[in-house]
């Protein structure tokens, strides 16, 4: 039996490991991108401005990203190290290309690109040099370079320029800067506007006389503003150009659409900037390196073994989370029935359960690593961003609840669900209970998990899978220890009629979990999709009823009942298959005083010197929902927000959102919750994943206000 358990473990975990190792190749980013920092002038003139260029040349077939990377990816970012008084302005982005990646559409650059950055030189620049020497301009350029896989990279760039009363154009750089300026979008030559046409948006550019127009594309500044992969339908008439677009949010206001319109006219590529650009983030120009986010136990301070230790603790605490408890309580109930078995058999049940947990964690982790290496903007719990997975999990748990309630008795062949856990819980039942425990644990985030998982996803596949295996071992450990010491089972009550009563009672926490999953589904799909999901639950109940009737019918009745059950199950799966076609954008309800998170809004608030509380949440994240209802929504915290004029930004990660994913990754996290407090232009304070009122009030500096309530 031990050989069977090990074979199952290797079978389930091998595909994830192979995918992860295949995706994370030995290719280094520096071999794919040659980056350099160049200047348009030979010297720096005090009180003047000089244009700098971040030049990136990519290996053929590879690309980097625009300011809005599209459905996945990460734009290049320069962390400057400048002498005191020097300051850089906003990056001037060339017009990107549309880069399809399977069903996604990204925006970026192939071949080579130069990002222009204006540098303001202080009047006293001469005084800051040593003995009339040059000024060093430096920084770290971070980027993501992608082909079929994506590899994060960075480059240390620097440039020494003298200070002079006048400056000639830099030798050999004129052509490069001329090409860079030619690649920038121009101001629109005529009026432009956006109108709504049913569930689509129409972009109008009033410019009579257009002829030979083709290849039109619109690149929005805001992520999520459009369904990037949807067709963009071009029409040209006497008034000008019309481009019909599909919004990413059905409620998006047409007047909020801003970006770059590009098209080809008589063989010439043209591009126009339409609408206001988002406010740039505040840029520091201190001599020291940019302040790193003070995330506790960040990837810079963690080692493999410390991360594995944190993951083990996080896995242990997952057992106390409401999403895992119903499954574990059912398994413990089955152990009561097994108390009379030999110690060897009880231990094998524990090992089979542990194998199921570890195989599931390694399989999910391997898939997550592979998808992230391919440029997907996902993190821990990513499978619950799919309405198909949410619906299937709800159907499986609903079947378990019906079995516990006695509606249907499921045999050992699908042990691990419902009655198979308690009456016929063989080794397969224990194994698949571990699989189920892992699936229902992913919506929960325990303390210590965030830093460990964030560290894991920045390391090699072997290191990452080691950390995830520690997380799984922590989840399995309490049950495993109980089975390794069977004498502990003698402390449990003797089997009896009370077990049937308890079994029926345990169905109701399972039904509550199903209700929560249906609520999550309602955040992910439209009304038609929700109706399909609910109808699927009815069909699951019909299948359970018909299957149970087959146990008490004659030969003909048994065949008909089982056929009806299978047809009902097939119909429910058919309904699940259409859910992805009715996807809706995140619809977290915003209470009074809350604003939807966007990076542009956060940057603007920081530039104004405001205090901002950022809440990264998801409908399927139970830890997030508990924190919001028991801490953030409390009267004392809300009063402190108002008194301190704290802006509350809520980011909804129920569905994939690349902007939120990037902020999570910046602070070493791979999933929600994440709570940040920004006070002016200073770097964020990262709060714990389990909040208290005192923690929040101390972070926003409003303890006294709460005490007065």
From TrEMBL:
<feature type="transmembrane region" description="Helical">
    <location>
        <begin position="391"/>
        <end position="417"/>
    </location>
</feature>
<dbReference type="GO" id="GO:0016020">
    <property type="term" value="C:membrane"/>
</dbReference>
<keyword id="KW-0472">Membrane</keyword>
<protein>
    <submittedName>
        <fullName>Cytochrome c biogenesis protein transmembrane region</fullName>
    </submittedName>
</protein>
<feature type="transmembrane region" description="Helical">
    <location>
        <begin position="304"/>
        <end position="330"/>
    </location>
</feature>
<feature type="transmembrane region" description="Helical">
    <location>
        <begin position="462"/>
        <end position="485"/>
    </location>
</feature>
<dbReference type="GO" id="GO:0045454">
    <property type="term" value="P:cell redox homeostasis"/>
</dbReference>
<keyword id="KW-1133">Transmembrane helix</keyword>
<keyword id="KW-0201">Cytochrome c-type biogenesis</keyword>
<feature type="transmembrane region" description="Helical">
    <location>
        <begin position="529"/>
        <end position="547"/>
    </location>
</feature>
<feature type="domain" description="Cytochrome C biogenesis protein transmembrane">
    <location>
        <begin position="305"/>
        <end position="518"/>
    </location>
</feature>
<dbReference type="InterPro" id="IPR035671">
    <property type="entry name" value="DsbD_gamma"/>
</dbReference>
<dbReference type="GO" id="GO:0015035">
    <property type="term" value="F:protein-disulfide reductase activity"/>
</dbReference>
<dbReference type="InterPro" id="IPR003834">
    <property type="entry name" value="Cyt_c_assmbl_TM_dom"/>
</dbReference>
<dbReference type="Pfam" id="PF11412">
    <property type="entry name" value="DsbD_N"/>
</dbReference>
<dbReference type="Pfam" id="PF13899">
    <property type="entry name" value="Thioredoxin_7"/>
</dbReference>
<feature type="region of interest" description="Disordered">
    <location>
        <begin position="272"/>
        <end position="297"/>
    </location>
</feature>
<dbReference type="GO" id="GO:0017004">
    <property type="term" value="P:cytochrome complex assembly"/>
</dbReference>
<dbReference type="InterPro" id="IPR028250">
    <property type="entry name" value="DsbDN"/>
</dbReference>
<feature type="transmembrane region" description="Helical">
    <location>
        <begin position="351"/>
        <end position="371"/>
    </location>
</feature>
<feature type="domain" description="Thiol:disulfide interchange protein DsbD N-terminal">
    <location>
        <begin position="35"/>
        <end position="159"/>
    </location>
</feature>
<dbReference type="InterPro" id="IPR036249">
    <property type="entry name" value="Thioredoxin-like_sf"/>
</dbReference>
<keyword id="KW-0812">Transmembrane</keyword>
<feature type="transmembrane region" description="Helical">
    <location>
        <begin position="505"/>
        <end position="523"/>
    </location>
</feature>
<keyword id="KW-0732">Signal</keyword>
<dbReference type="Pfam" id="PF02683">
    <property type="entry name" value="DsbD_TM"/>
</dbReference>
<feature type="transmembrane region" description="Helical">
    <location>
        <begin position="559"/>
        <end position="579"/>
    </location>
</feature>
<feature type="signal peptide">
    <location>
        <begin position="1"/>
        <end position="18"/>
    </location>
</feature>
<feature type="transmembrane region" description="Helical">
    <location>
        <begin position="429"/>
        <end position="456"/>
    </location>
</feature>
């Amino acid at each position: 039996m031990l050989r069977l358990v090990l074979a199952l473990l290797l079978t389930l975990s091998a595909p994830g490991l192979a995918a992860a190792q295949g995706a994370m190749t030995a290719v280094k980013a520096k071999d794919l991108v040659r980056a350099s920092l160049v200047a348009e002038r030979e010297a720096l003139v005090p009180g003047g401005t000089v244009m700098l260029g971040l030049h990136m040349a990519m290996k053929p077939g590879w690309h980097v990203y625009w300011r809005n990377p599209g459905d996945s990816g990460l734009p290049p970012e320069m962390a400057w190290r400048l002498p005191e008084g020097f300051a850089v302005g906003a990056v001037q982005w060339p017009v990107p290309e549309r880069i399809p990646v399977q069903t996604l559409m990204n925006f970026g650059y192939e071949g080579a690109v130069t990002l222009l950055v204006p540098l303001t030189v202080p009047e006293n620049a001469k005084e800051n040099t040593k003995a009339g020497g040059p000024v060093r301009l430096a920084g770290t350029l971070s980027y993501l370079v992608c082909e079929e896989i994506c590899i994060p990279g960075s480059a240390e760039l620097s440039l020494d320029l003298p200070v002079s009363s006048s400056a000639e154009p830099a030798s050999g750089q004129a052509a490069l800067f001329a090409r860079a300026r030619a690649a920038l979008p121009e101001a629109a030559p005529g009026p432009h506007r956006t109108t709504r046409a049913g569930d689509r948006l129409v972009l109008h550019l009033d410019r009579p006389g257009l002829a030979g127009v083709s290849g039109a594309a619109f690149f929005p500044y805001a992520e999520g503003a459009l369904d990037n992969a949807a067709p963009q339908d071009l029409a040209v008439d006497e008034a000008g150009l019309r481009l019909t677009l599909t919004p990413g949010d059905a409620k998006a206001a047409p007047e909020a659409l801003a970006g770059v319109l590009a098209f080809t006219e008589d063989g010439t590529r043209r591009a126009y900037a339409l609408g206001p650009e988002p406010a740039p983030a505040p840029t520091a120009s201190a001599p020291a390196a940019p302040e790193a986010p003070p995330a506790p136990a960040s990837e810079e301070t963690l080692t493999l073994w410390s991360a594995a230790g944190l993951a083990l603790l996080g896995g242990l605490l997952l057992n106390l989370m409401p999403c895992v408890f119903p499954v574990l309580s059912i398994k413990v109930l089955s152990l009561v029935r097994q108390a009379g078995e030999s110690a060897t058999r009880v231990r094998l049940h524990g090992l089979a359960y542990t194998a199921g947990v570890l195989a599931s964690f390694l399989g999910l982790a391997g898939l997550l690593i592979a998808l992230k290496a391919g440029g997907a903007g996902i993190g821990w719990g990513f499978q619950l961003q799919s309405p198909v997975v949410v619906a299937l999990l709800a159907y499986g748990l609903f079947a378990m609840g019906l079995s516990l309630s006695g509606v249907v008795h499921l045999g050992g062949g699908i042990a691990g669900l419902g009655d198979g856990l308690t009456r016929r819980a063989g080794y397969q039942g224990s194994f698949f209970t571990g699989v189920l425990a892992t699936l229902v644990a992913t919506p929960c985030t325990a303390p210590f998990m965030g830093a460990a998982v964030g560290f894991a996803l920045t390391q090699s596949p072997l290191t990452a899978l080691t950390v995830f295996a520690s997380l799984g071992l922590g989840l399995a450990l309490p049950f495993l220890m109980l089975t390794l010491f069977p004498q502990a089972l003698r402390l449990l009550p003797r089997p009896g009629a009370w077990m049937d009563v308890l079994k029926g009672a345990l169905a109701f926490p399972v039904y509550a979990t199903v209700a929560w999953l249906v609520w999550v589904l309602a955040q992910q799909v439209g009304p038609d999709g929700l109706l399909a999901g609910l109808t699927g639950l009815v069909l699951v109940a019909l299948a359970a009823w018909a299957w149970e009737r087959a146990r008490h019918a004659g030969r003909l009745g048994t065949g008909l009942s089982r056929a009806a059950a299978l047809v009902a199950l097939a119909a429910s799966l058919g309904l699940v298959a259409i859910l992805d076609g009715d996807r809706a954008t995140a619809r977290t309800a915003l209470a009074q005083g809350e604003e939807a998170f966007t990076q542009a809004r956060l940057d603007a608030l920081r530039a104004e010197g405001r205090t901002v509380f950022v809440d990264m949440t998801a409908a399927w994240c139970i830890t997030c929902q508990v924190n919001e209802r028991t801490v953030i929504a409390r009267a004392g915290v809300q009063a402190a927000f108002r008194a301190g004029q704290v802006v509350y930004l809520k980011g909804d990660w129920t569905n994939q959102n690349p902007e939120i994913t990037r902020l999570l990754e910046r602070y070493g996290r791979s999933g929600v919750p994440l709570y940040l407090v920004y006070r002016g232009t200073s770097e964020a304070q990262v709060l714990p994943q389990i909040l208290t009122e005192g923690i929040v009030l101390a972070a926003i500096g409003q303890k006294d206000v709460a005490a007065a309530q």
